[in-house]
Sequence to fold (783 residues):
Amino acid sequence: MRLVDGVRIVDGVRIVELFRVFRPRPPLAARRTGPQAMRHDSRAAIGWSELVLAAGASLLGGWCAAAGAEIDFEQTAGDVLLRRCVACHGSAEPSGGLDLSSAAGLQAGGDGGAAVVPGDAGSSRLFQRLRDGEMPPEQQGRSARLPAEEIDRIAQWIAAGARWPAGRVLDPYERTTATRAGRDWWSLQPLTDAAPPERTDRRESAPPRHPIDAFLDERLLRAGIAPAPEADRRTLLRRLSYDLTGLPPTVEEIDAFLADGAPDAYERQVDRLLQSPHFGERQARHWLDVVRFAETNGYERDAEKVGAWKYRDWVIGAANDDMPYDRFILEQLAGDELPDADEQTVIATGLLRIGPWDDEPNDVEAYRYERLEDLVHVASTAFLGLTVKCARCHDHKFDPIPQTDYYRLAAAFWPGHLSGWGPGAAQLGYDVLGWTDVTTDPTPLRVLAKGDPARPLHAAWPGSLTCMPRLAVDFPPAAPGARTTGRRLGLARWIADPANPLTSRVIVNRLWQRHFGEGLCANPDNLGFHGPPPLHAELLDWLARDLTIHGWRLKRTHRLMVTSAAYKRRSIHPAAERPAARDPSNRLLWRAARRRLDAESIRDSALAASGELDRRVGGPSFREIIAAEALEGLSMKGEAYAASPLEERRRRSLYMFSKRSLSVPMMTAFDACDTTAPAGRREASIVPTQALTLLNSPWIRQRSAAFAERVVARAADPEARIDEAWRRALGRLPTAAERAAARAWLDAERQAAPAEALPAHDRAAWTALCQTLLNANEFLFLD
Fold:
């Protein structure tokens, strides 16, 4: 069959004049003209073309049956059914009872009877439902009707006898289609062996390029975009300090860096910050978001998880010690099962205990599966960047994860402390919030029909995801005398295998997001079908491979990223109109992204400016003051919350007690992370409540008053005080215009004050000036 002048031809037999025969023409007076007529005729043509297709199918069926034509199954029905149908009509419980993945399923038909009548497309329900647009069903209120050409291929196949190759089973995960990912999805493939592109200019005098810039510059060159120049040194140090430690550089650090004329001054600053104990604090904050860290159970009673802070401190220590990332995975998933297990590795398994926990569920047995889902979700999201939990009730709708795979991963956690009782790891003797198996011979976990605990099916045994068959692993039963099943250790080793492409891609993508504002894959928690693919795929793979071949050391990757020219660019391009026209979203990184500080950095920076910040690392959490109005929603107001002493409340925000049912209002205003589910990316809203918080919050006014006292104590001259305030808040001296405006406002306030109230009025004026600086965009944003 081919197209000639828009009319289908079958070996010289024209499906002729059908459109003209079947389409009645309206009376002359009713005929429209102009664009409206074209739209009307177009819609009519679509409707009548369906009739033509039906009639054509009947003619075609008779002709093909008579001629005994051979039809290529893979190029006709096989291709269409695989891409369009078997996702719903090929699972364990096929839609409408119709399984279109095999010859047996096709012959059995569905709830409505036979699907095809071999040799007669027009009488076949499969063809009819495709032709009439009933299938595929609407997607989000929009028609999912197949193109006429694809319906035509089904018609050809049925008309030729609907032959199905012997033994052929259409696997919905066979390959990626327009509606779902297959096992050939990009993130499931082995890392490519990409090398940084060589220079195209090849000037002998040109220094060797940074490998990251080698990738990025080639894309910019092809796009005809000249990147922004390097930012000034003060901006670079502020950017670097916040990214690596979450704190602003001190005035003394800025002065020293600006005075350092050595060619490696920047690289030495990078190394200094990577060795800072505050580096681990900053990296821990990112990871705690990913693993839904909090120190209470949530739900109505929201009881405290005693000792949860030790897990937070373990993460800080792991980052500061540059623990290899593969070991970081092993300890958190199976620290109690390691041959060298000790108290710290058991603390690491707190990952499995810090999620929400209902201590009085309505249905205890059903809640075991809810907890199991949380464990699968946090492990697969954090380390693999896949939404495996979507396969609890049915095969994953978009990724190549059958329902059985969900239960294979879940079975690794099945023997453990699903109840969440007690200190955990009792067999090892540690009184910490850890996790271990309660038995080495658990009852089998059952696959649940529709995820319903009341409908158990066959047993599920622990194993890896089948979407990467070259890495398929089944975990052996526990060895005689073992204290645990070893299942979680098997799962952790499969995740941490250097040949697992998801693990290294996911973590380097998370690091890239921290330094550039957006990951190479925009959704760091989903590298599946609904996660945008990477624009710089070769760069992502190069970074992932570099991480694994250099011992999984994350500090090396951090250093690579922040020493690149791309990282050091200005956030404002001198000729922004030209690159913005070619790449308005800055995906090619022709400039740095301007970013608002997160809630923790805003609070910590205010404490740093006022001179109050307590920089102690680690230890139990403190409780911030929360207004009585915010406590009204608690069921036990008097017993549920009590603020810590003032000296404790001056610590970094990382150490603020995280209560699931009670957020500190200031932190909520600036988009602090939700603790109910993994979150690899925070929203950064700009809303009026943020400005109102900075203007009216008692906490901000207290910091402003302390800031003012610090400024006044350090200098007697008003001009020197103004300079001091700008340097402490913004890291620079004021401009002449800023200094003049500040001096004029202070003088006006002083003149308006009665003599007897002058000291108090003077303090209030300096406090207001300092609070203005804490409200400045330059204080709140990172250039």
